[in-house]
Amino acid sequence: MRARIRGAFSTSYLTLLSIIQGTAFAALFAKVDSLVTQHSFHAPQAVMAFGLLLLIVALWNQYLIGWCLLIRYCRSRSEYSNSL
Predict the structure, then answer these.
(1) Distance between CA atoms of residues 68 and 65, nearest Å
(2) Mean pLDDT confidence for 22-46
(3) Helix 11-37 with 43-83: angle, nearest 10 deg
């Protein structure tokens, strides 16, 4: 059971999430670049772009923390059950 849980949150999911995050960053920066070249990039767009950037980074951080805690929990449970 523990091996299946560890396998479910393998590094392939982190790699896939990194690809999705890179695509989201590229779309965000492309939109900002097009607005800047059209000279229509004002304060509300800047706030929204910065907010989206922070949201993407925060979501990645939360996923990574959850993944690390799950792996740590599984390891501590297996070490505890092996010591009994």
Answers:
(1) 5
(2) 89
(3) 170
**Global model pTM greater than 0.70:** no
**Residue 23 CB coordination number (10 Å):** 10
Handedness of CA 29, 32, 36, 42 (dihedral sign): negative
Q: Which of 83, 78, 74 is nearest to 7 (CA)?
A: 74
Q: Taking the mean position of all CA atoms in its chain, how far away is CA 27?
A: 16
Q: Give residue 17's pLDDT band: very low, low, confident or very high (50, 70, 90).
A: confident
Residue matched to tokens 């896939």: 16
The predicted pLDDT at position 54 comes to 93
> Letter for the amino acid at 33?
D
User: What are the residue ranges spanned by the domains of the chain?
Assistant: 2-83
Please list, in sequence order, all residues whose beta carbon lies within 8 angstroms of the beta carbon of residue 64, skipping any fewer than 6 positions away.
Answer: 14
